[in-house]
Give the backbone structure.
Amino acid sequence: MKIFKYQPTPSFMRLALVSILAFIVQAMPGQDTLRLTLNDAISLGLKQNYNITISEQELNIARNNNTPGAAGRYPSFDFRATQGNSFLNSESRTQEGVRDQMYTNYVSPVLTLNWTIFDGFRVNITKKNLEDLESLSEGFSALVVQNTIQAIILAYNNLLLQQEKLAVFDELKSLSRDRLLYMKTRQEFGSAVTFDVLLANDNYLTDSVNYLQQESSIRNAALLLKLLLALDDTTEVALTDSFSVKLETYDFEDLKHKMFSNNRTLLNQYLNQKIYENSTELAQSSKYPELFLTSGAVYATTRQRVVNDEASTAYSFGYYANFTLRFNIYNGGATRRAFQNAVINENIGLIEIEQMRKNLGNQLHNQYDQFLIRKKLLTVAESSQQSAGLNLQIAEERFKSGAINSFNYRDVQLSYLNASIRRLEAIFNLISTETDILRLTGGIVSEND
């Protein structure tokens, strides 16, 4: 009787070596692990996220610009001082054949004031525009915060999703390993053929490869979360929240009312419309006359010294105040065109607001419908996963008893794998849709205050 002895394939040996090395690396002592709840992650992101930090600095610029001086309310003072030195060698006016050598030094400080007394209310309009620009910058900063919170929520739950998937792959790999050992044991007693052992080995290798690929997906998901939190890529994070979702119930009309009242993008568009209105008022102000005041004081002291003679000193002082009235009578219709264009831009802004309201309404309707569907899909996925798990337990017993073959048992394993993955993805999809609804209705920031 010919006895067949199973020899591990090269791919199996490589996989075993990789697994051993991975275990050694994980067992090595490393740096402290940062444990994070979802609220911890959001708080850390609000403090350290790069986009939020940049938006805060841009908001500081808008605040610095929002001053009466920047609007032109106050006069400007300028000081200038000139100092000169010269030497002149010329023929003497009193003695023929003799040349005079004269040194001259002078200092002349000048103080100038320029003030726009009236410019068609442009100062007031400009100040109001600067206030609106600061408010718009605050709106953009709030939008960045909102989008960052949403990104952190999704990245956090995506990492949990990948970890849960890894647990499923690990469970399936363990089943495949047990099956391989079982088939090798049966082969030793002559109740299993080589084909059965090779099939079990291939299934185990496939499940092991899926497990290793899933570990790579976890690392990528962790890197994305750490980027949002502005953490070093070498920092280890451990998520302490469970991967689950609470089945909420929403009223569509209530969501719609909140969206039109709190949606950050729509609120920013309202602020942008105010800036259009300010531009119209500025164009209108060009039709008024302008009155300017220019005032100043001038002082000069001069010292002259002729060689072989005593120096003489003289000074002068004066001041002035001049008013300038400017009124544009005709400039080729430029003022009228600027006003008309500003009115057109203002009307375009109103159309954009209406368009945005329509688009947001459609988005909310789609997300709400998707939310209801995904709630049902999650319920179905949970039932399917429970059934597949029970079927797997029964199939394992039937396989060991010889009631089903290896192919049937593998099909049941894959069915359990797919059902488990569908359940996990259904949870994440529901979280993603609910987060989109909160973003549209302006509820993300309030939910996480």
Remarks:
- Residues 1-30 have pLDDT under 50 and may be disordered.
- The chain has two domains: 10-66+121-288+332-447, 75-118+290-326.
